[in-house]
TrEMBL record:
InterPro entries: Zinc_finger, Znf_C2H2_sf, Znf_C2H2_type. It is found in: Nucleus. This is Gastrula zinc finger protein XlCGF7.1-like. PROSITE patterns: ZINC_FINGER_C2H2_1 (PS00028), ZINC_FINGER_C2H2_2 (PS50157). GO terms for cellular component: nucleus. Belongs to the krueppel C2H2-type zinc-finger protein family. It comes from Gongylonema pulchrum. Gene3D superfamilies: Classic Zinc Finger (3.30.160.60). Pfam families: zf-C2H2. GO terms for biological process: negative regulation of transcription by RNA polymerase II. Keywords: Metal-binding, Nucleus, Repeat, Zinc, Zinc-finger. SMART domains: ZnF_C2H2. GO terms for molecular function: zinc ion binding.
Amino acid sequence: MLTHTGEKPFKCDHCNSSFSQKIILQEHIRTHTGEKPFKCDRCNLSFGRKADLQRHTRTHTGEKPFKCDHCNSSFRRKTNLKRHMLTHTGEKPFKYDHCNSSFSQKIILQEHIRTHIGEKPFKCDRCNLSFGRKANLQRHTRTHTGEKPFKCDHCNSSFGQKTHLQMHMRTHTGEKPHKCQFCDKAMSSRSNFIRHQKTHSGKTHTNSNSSL
């Protein structure tokens, strides 16, 4: 009933926090003491909350119990499902006051704000480059490590970026999503499509050193 009344009788001796349930207070106290009694039996990690251990265990088992009602997607965490649902509803509750942009996730709003202020907090530890988005740093790091985690299901090819895998897949499927509005041609590659469009707009450039 305390969740309805808003009463929080369980108070932390270390800070000003208070809680409606004793078990939540106990979990909170561990953030002060550093105690982590919930240990993973598959690796060396341990956690202060049982729920955190349960979420972590799914990274080993691959279990994704939170399923989307609108598509086949499923997730390990309920919060990830909630974020995903916004892609179906189109809701974008996170708005930026300095322009008309709005976003479905707070983290995407934060990344967008960095494009305005120029902040680049994600730094490469192998060179001097820094990035506004963590995902961009991860992609960049693969240029150093040579890691290619995106693998083709049809052949032995693998790629450092997901977009490169998607372009490669079109060589198997024959998909050509870039269609010319002036003629019947369609291309699988956007760069080839842009070059083709210039043949219609008169913006093609011939190599001055090429022989006639």
